């Protein structure tokens, strides 16, 4: 596992350094297998280091949309290292006195740091959270509840006591960074990072003014207008056909390779969790009112098919 993560780390370095152009000479990577959490973190104290938990995300996690988890995790965490590292201008002499403690970008908002890391994990892989179904579903949910425009900069930087809780800065931060990259290209990452590495603390708005001729609040509003156009909820025939009780929660679904069968892992409030099989009818639709219960399960989180479309796991 250490050899594999060494490869992921070097690959992340090769992908990201041409964009950020500046970083520490060495970054330590610690593999911690003492938890079942699927996560990791990066820090610059007492020296640049990354801790990774080599556990695959659960199917209902917001980061469950991945093509190669180890690489995506290293791209995400190494982005944090590179985005925090620069400290120039008025901070230069203090680096010789206080060392790694002088990292002005470390106090930028969470949406700024986490959003950039998600933008990079999505940019250099085929999936990532910017391509995940949960992102689109979240935006549609905000639109349906008429709450999208109420998410101000101060709100998206918090972990509020309502959905999507701690995922708020990740969701909106990645959308903001993706909009910035789409408008100005990859080079805007280096320009904004370098600009903030020289400015007084909490002067993020002035960097946006320099490169977008607008402040972050107006930039956020523009993003909401675009999201409303792109993600407006539409009538969905699939949603109309499935009429499940509110006592049922669908944990996972899996379509067979031959496209003829659909598995549904369902938790019934009164009857526990079991796997239900649906068959495609002559009208090419699935009849969700006549599923066949295959088996009950206990702690299963994910289901799938073998290539023969006859066996499940």
Describe the protein:
- With 313 residues, this protein is an alpha+beta fold.
- The chain has 11 helices and 7 strands.
- The strands form 2 sheets. A 4-stranded antiparallel sheet has the order 4-5-6-7, with no helix packed on it. A 3-stranded mixed sheet has the order 1-3-2, covered by helices on one side.
- A hairpin with a 3-residue loop joins β5 and β6.
- α8 packs antiparallel against α9.
Mean of residue pLDDT values: 87
State the end-to-end distance: 25 Å
SS summary, helix count: 11
Radius of gyration: 22 Å
Question: What is the H/E string?
Answer: HEEEHHHHHHHHHHEEEE
Strand content: 5-15%
Taking pLDDT < 50 over at least 5 consecutive residues as the criterion, the unreliable ranges are: 238-243
Per DSSP E runs of 2 or more residues, the count of β-strands stands at 7
Query: Which structural class best describes the helix and strand composition?
Result: alpha+beta
How is the main sheet built? 4 strands, antiparallel
* Helicity range: 40-55%
Give the strand order of the largest sheet, numbering strands 1, 2, ... along the chain. Answer: 4-5-6-7
Characterize the overall form.
globular
List keywords for this structure.
alpha+beta, four-stranded antiparallel β-sheet, 11 helices, 7 strands
What is the topological layout?
Blueprint: H1 2-20, E1 28-31, E2 40-43, E3 49-52, H2 69-84, H3 92-98, H4 110-123, H5 133-144, H6 153-156, H7 168-184, H8 187-196, H9 204-212, H10 216-230, H11 237-241, E4 248-255, E5 261-268, E6 272-279, E7 292-297
Helix pairs in contact: 1-2, 2-4, 4-7, 8-9
